[in-house]
C-alpha cells in the first residue's frame, strides 16, 4: 500500500510559541488550526509512494544534503503570511526571518527537489517560500480577522537549530493528518 510522503524540517521545541501565535486566531470563523506538535517546513511533497522506494529516497536525500553544501544552521521563525493571497486565503503560516536561515532552507529545498525529480517525482508547482502552516481556512467567515492579523502583527516564534531533514509519512484521518518520521538525514 502506498505511503503519502514528504520531506521536511520539523519545528521541534517551538510548539508552545506556535500555539501562542495561534491563540490570536482562536474562534475565528472558518479557520482550522493545525497541531503545533506537527509544525514543519515542507521541502518537497512526494505524494503517494511505493514503500519499496523508501531506501532509494533516503539515499537521494543524503546526496541532496551533500549537494546543498548546507551544514547545521539556525533558523529564526516569525511574522505571518497567507497562501495564495490576502484576498483569497487558504493557508495561514509563520515565516522565516530574512537572512536568518531562509537561504539555507532554500538551498536544501532546491537540492532535494533536484534529486527527487530525477527519481520521477513531480516538482513543486510554486516558488518555495520557507514557512510552517499554522491554520487552514475552510471558508471566508473570519477572513477580515486573518487579514488584519497578517498586516498588523509580526509575532516572534523563536529560533531553531536545524541539524537534519526528515522523510515523513502523512496519514489522513477524520481529525486531519498525522505525521510520522520514516527516516532522517543529518546535515
List the helices and strands and how they pair.
Elements: E1 3-10, H1 15-23, E2 31-33, E3 40-49, H2 54-68, E4 73-84, E5 89-96, H3 102-118, E6 131-137, H4 143-152, E7 156-162, E8 164-173, E9 176-186
Helix pairs in contact: 2-3
Descriptive overview:
This protein has 187 residues and is α+β, with helices and mostly antiparallel strands. The chain is 27% helix and 41% strand. It has four helices and nine strands. It has a five-stranded antiparallel β-sheet. It has a four-stranded antiparallel β-sheet with strand order 3-1-8-9. A hairpin with a 2-residue loop joins β8 and β9. The longest helix is centred in the middle third of the chain and has 17 residues. The radius of gyration is 16 Å and the shape is globular. The model has no long low-confidence stretch (mean pLDDT 96).
Principal-axis shape equals globular
Count of distinct strands = 9
Radius of gyration: 16 Å
Instruction: Classify the helix fraction into a percent range.
Output: 25-40%
Percent of residues in beta strands: 35-45%
The helix-and-strand class reads alpha+beta
Sheet with the most strands: spatial strand order: 2-6-5-4-7
Number of helices: 4
Q: What is the chain-wise order of helices and strands? A: EHEEHEEHEHEEE
How far apart the termini lie comes to 30 Å
**Mean pLDDT over all positions:** 96
Low-confidence stretches: none
The biggest sheet amounts to:
5 strands, antiparallel
